[in-house]
Design goal:
There is one protein chain. The chain has 237 residues and is an alpha/beta fold. The protein has eight helices and ten strands. The strands form two sheets. Strands 1-10-9-6-2-3-5 form a seven-stranded parallel beta sheet, sandwiched between helices. The chain has a three-stranded antiparallel beta sheet with strand order 4-8-7. Helix 1 crosses helix 2. The two termini are 21 Å apart.
């Protein structure tokens, strides 16, 4: 195993959520103490939702915290698949409502056309980001870095912080294949990466990705194979 990967496996979802929430709070408090502001990069999906709800009630200096998306489907916030809507309903509640939120979706007709505006918004954030939360799909994607997607090569090699992606339609992507995503370079602008997975099926996918192989087949490998930023893996059944 790479010395850069720290695995935290939990016997219960309660223990998983409690430690994740406490760890995130600690990262944000340290970022504010060191730099005057903290930046939290957030992913959608069911895994982080309880930790987001826990975080939202904590007495942090939320007015000094920037919350920004890891990736987003190119849909309006009113769409039921919008990550932005999910973050607003889980994390940006209670005390966390005072945080500054930076979204990816803008009025451009496509992610490709909206990339420059999104890049400018993200470039204004403090770097390094204090923590980036990643999920993982059963196809080995993370963020919106999907296997063999149109734009994947660019997202893995560009120095830009965000990139437009058009994924190959699958059971994982659903009908919405057009996305905006943090690039590999942006993810590696984090002080720490927290990879959240649950269930035996995803554990097996994670182990396959960790074992090595072609990045284009399982883009999560681009994160697991690097030595620059520690990756903390949280898993529970």
């Amino acid at each position: 195993m790479s010395a850069n990967i720290i695995e935290k496996f939990f016997d219960s979802k309660d223990a998983y959520n409690a430690e994740l929430g406490e760890d995130l709070a600690k990262c944000l408090a340290q970022g504010i103490e060191q730099d005057g502001r903290a930046v939290l990069m957030v992913s959608g999906g069911s895994s982080p939702a309880p930790a987001y709800r826990y975080l939202s009630g904590l007495e942090l200096a939320w007015d000094k915290i920037d919350v920004a998306m890891v990736d987003e489907r190119w849909v309006e916030q009113s769409h039921d698949k919008s990550n932005e809507a999910f973050i607003k309903s889980t994390l940006l509640q209670d005390k966390a409502a005072a945080a500054n939120f930076v979204t990816m979706k803008n009025p451009a007709d496509s992610a490709q056309l909206g990339q420059a505006e999104c890049q400018n918004a993200y470039a204004a954030l403090k770097q390094n980001f204090d923590v980036t939360i990643l999920g993982m799909g059963p196809d080995g994607h993370t963020a919106s870095l999907f296997p063999h997607a149109q734009g994947l090569d660019n997202a893995l090699t560009t120095t830009d912080l965000v990139a437009a992606i058009d994924a190959i339609k699958s059971d994982v992507t659903g009908d919405i294949t057009e996305r905006m995503t943090l690039t590999r370079a942006a993810i590696l602008q984090s002080k720490v990466i927290k990879l959240l997975i649950s269930g035996e099926e995803k554990l097996a996918v994670y182990k396959e990705a960790k074992a090595g192989g072609e990045v284009a087949d399982m883009p999560l490998r681009a994160i697991l194979q690097q030595k620059k930023v520690p990756v903390e893996v949280y898993w529970t059944a």
